[in-house]
Design goal:
Blueprint: H1 2-20, H2 26-30, E1 35-36, E2 41-49, E3 57-63, H3 64-69, E4 70-71, E5 79-84, E6 96-102, E7 109-120, E8 127-128, E9 135-136, E10 143-146, E11 152-154
Antiparallel strand pairs: 1-4, 2-7, 2-8, 3-6, 5-6, 5-7, 9-10, 10-11
Length: 160
């Protein structure tokens, strides 16, 4: 009886996920490649409140500079929120953390939070420019960029 119940529960959950989440085809996954396009402004230490759309893309365990330099969505990316992971503060290229990209209007309210850094692809930020410095090679700390195939090119700033 318990096995039948668990099987039924698993099937119900699988059905619910299949009907709610869109299928991820190879073509769909390719739409989420990062594209070199630095943010126009930023607000370090500021966390948005009341975001009016779901995240378009979450990139985990990346440098703040990667979040500020690369768009991650198929539609026009308007802003991204970076949350710092302090466990990696001593790594080359720190800070590291999670970058959540959005395609909706930029929120109008922000609250101070030293673990957040918001990047904007317009002039909504408190500071001009991407603000995060260069993307660094995680092995040696030298500036460069990473191609969409994952290869880091030291000294480059025009990766694709």
């Amino acid at each position: 009886m318990q096995i039948t119940y668990m099987t039924g529960l698993a099937l119900t959950l699988a059905w619910a996920l299949a009907t709610v989440l869109p299928p991820i085809s190879a073509a769909h996954r390719s739409l989420h490649k990062r594209t070199l396009d630095p943010a126009e402004s930023n607000s370090k230490g500021m966390k948005p409140v009341n975001i009016d759309c779901p995240p378009a893309r979450l990139s985990q365990d990346i440098q703040a500079a990667e979040c500020s330099h690369n768009t991650r969505t198929h539609e026009k990316q308007t802003f991204a929120v970076f949350v710092i992971d302090h466990d990696k503060d001593k790594n080359h290229g720190a800070p590291y953390g999670n970058c959540t990209a959005y395609t909706c209007d930029v929120p109008t309210k922000f609250v101070p939070d030293e673990n957040h850094w918001s990047f904007f692809w317009n002039e909504e930020g408190l500071e001009e420019g991407h603000g995060a410095g260069c993307i660094k090679n995680p092995r040696n700390g030298k500036c460069g960029c990473e191609n969409s195939d994952g290869k880091f090119i030291t000294g480059a700033d025009n990766c694709k």
